[in-house]
Write a structure and sequence with these properties.
The chain has one domain: Rossmann fold (3-Layer(aba) Sandwich), CATH 3.40.50.300. It is globular, with a radius of gyration of 17 Å. A five-stranded parallel sheet has the order 6-7-8-3-9, sandwiched between helices. A four-stranded antiparallel sheet has the order 2-1-4-5, with helices on one face. The two termini are 32 Å apart. The protein is built from seven helices and nine strands. It has helices spanning 47-54, 77-87, 103-114, 118-131, 147-159, 177-192, 204-208, and strands spanning 8-18, 21-31, 35-40, 62-67, 70-71, 88-91, 165-169, 196-200, 212-215. By secondary structure, the protein is α/β, with parallel strands linked by helices. A hairpin with a 2-residue loop joins β4 (62-67) and β5 (70-71).
């Protein structure tokens, strides 16, 4: 019987923002396809920083981050950017929408960067917006929607490419209980489809919905 290799793996990762003050030191974990993992613990323990490291948006000071067996740690920035666009989806804590662009353009941006046709990307995006009940005109700007709607728009953007790895930072933080359940169900469904889903959360309910809880 063979064991499938991890989709994403961190080995002995260390990071510091200020020399001599380590946020992470010798941290290791593996994330497999079909799994949903919670990263939990008190504020200030480096959970969001770890998510940025796993998502190749920060370089570790030590150790390695591997994606599908490829060591991405020392890749050139252009290669890391291509890998992020091809295999990762992100839901940031503050939604991180471009305030100058429409809701629809915010959702389709990464798909267009990957080379998907504008027509197909728009059709897929509109389907996701409807699925998550984002009942606003798609040409509206992010500044004209609520915080909960912005977070759901960010989720649609993350799911549009059916990413191999989905990273979410407090994805239910601005949502009511009903919508929170919808989002958690969507994350679990995405994991069940063969992705590795990693969620930073302070919510016991979200952590309980995950297959594993890694506490920092």
């Amino acid at each position: 019987m063979t064991t499938e290799a991890p989709v994403l793996q961190a080995r002995d990762v260390g990071f510091e923002y200020v020399p001599g003050v380590r946020v992470l030191d010798g941290w290791s974990a593996s994330f497999r396809a079909g799994s949903m993992t919670a990263l939990t613990g008190p504020s200030g323990r480096g959970k969001s920083t770890l998510l940025y490291l796993l998502g190749l948006m920060l370089h570790p000071g030590q150790g390695h981050i591997a994606v599908d067996g490829m060591d991405a740690t020392r890749m050139p920035d252009a290669a890391r950017a291509r890998l992020r666009a091809d295999r990762f989806g992100f839901v940031f804590q503050d939604a991180a929408l471009d305030q100058t662009r429409t809701v629809l353009d915010n959702v389709t941006e990464t798909a267009l960067y990957r080379g998907q046709s504008r027509r197909d990307a728009r059709a897929d995006a509109l389907g996701l917006l409807e699925r998550f009940g984002v009942d606003v005109p798609p040409l509206r700007k992010p500044g004209q929607v609520s915080g909960g709607q912005a977070q759901r728009i960010a989720l649609c953007r993350a799911l549009l490419n059916a990413p191999r790895v989905l990273l979410a930072d407090e994805p239910t933080g601005n949502l009511d209980p009903v919508t929170s359940d919808l989002v958690v169900d969507a994350l679990r469904e995405h994991a069940a489809g063969g992705a590795a889903v990693i969620v930073v959360t302070h919510s016991p309910e979200v952590a309980a919905a995950c297959d594993e809880d890694i506490r920092l």
